[in-house]
Amino acid sequence: MDPSTFAIQSVLVKTKCHARVEVYGVLVPRLWEDTIDAHRRSVDEAILSATVELVAEHGLASVTMSQIAARVGIGRATLYKYYPDVESILVAWHERQIGAHLAQLAEVGQQPGPPLRRLRAVLTAYATISRQRHGDQQLASLLHSAEHVRRAQAHLRDFVAGLITEAATAGEIRTDIPPAELAAYCLHALTAAGVLPSAAAVGRLVDVTLTGLQPPQQ
After folding, report:
1. Which of 35, 161, 185, 193 is the most exposed, fewest CB within 10 Å of its CB?
2. Whether residue 70 is found in the same domain as residue 92
3. Three-state secondary structure string covering 175-186
């Protein structure tokens, strides 16, 4: 039996012979703790999903905490133990989405191959993510003004600038403009992918963007 699944607990026992309390250690399974944590995570995920679904169905201004609790199947008092309002739920959902996107882009950028190829792959993945985003303008305005978005944008610019630096060192792209400025140019240009009709159009946008990174003609 794996001892790591047990915890030492103090148990108070009052004997029949003496009016005193003795303390001794016993082994108690940790299973109940793991079960509670898993349940909390499950409820949290359900709250995030239900809120996004309701906003998509009815619009941001129409969604209430009571509707969210009913959709999840929990009491409103329980919902308030997780989040104070609808906005905080949406920010938590968006922060989780952004974290997943950054992890995806990092994985793409770490694939083997020359720097320019990896840069193209990251920019293509970023443009694809931009194209897949949807939602009303009110929701987008709320989420994209949050502090976690600014942190993520700065992290992404630094990441892309690093790839650009590698490609420039390898002689694959221009060196007359700082990598940070080129990274900002690429990310700003690729936000246009949000209105493109197809993956093929995304690929053409990436090609045009990378053209701007080519060394100037002598």
Report:
1. 35
2. no
3. CCCCHHHHHHHH
Name the burial class of residue 32, with classes exposed (0-12), middle (13-18) and buried (19+) by CB atoms within 10 angstroms of its CB. Answer: exposed
* Amino acid letter for position 81: K
Domain that holds residue 27: 3-84
pTM comes to 0.72
Q: Which residue is it, tokens 């793409």? A: 108
Name the domain count of the chain: 2
E strand or H helix that includes residue 211: helix 199-211
* Whole-number pLDDT of residue 130: 85
The closest of 106, 13, 90 to 49, measured between CA atoms, is: 90
Determine the 3-state secondary structure of 93 from DSSP.
helix
Q: Report the distance separating Cα 213 and Cα 174, nearest Å.
A: 6
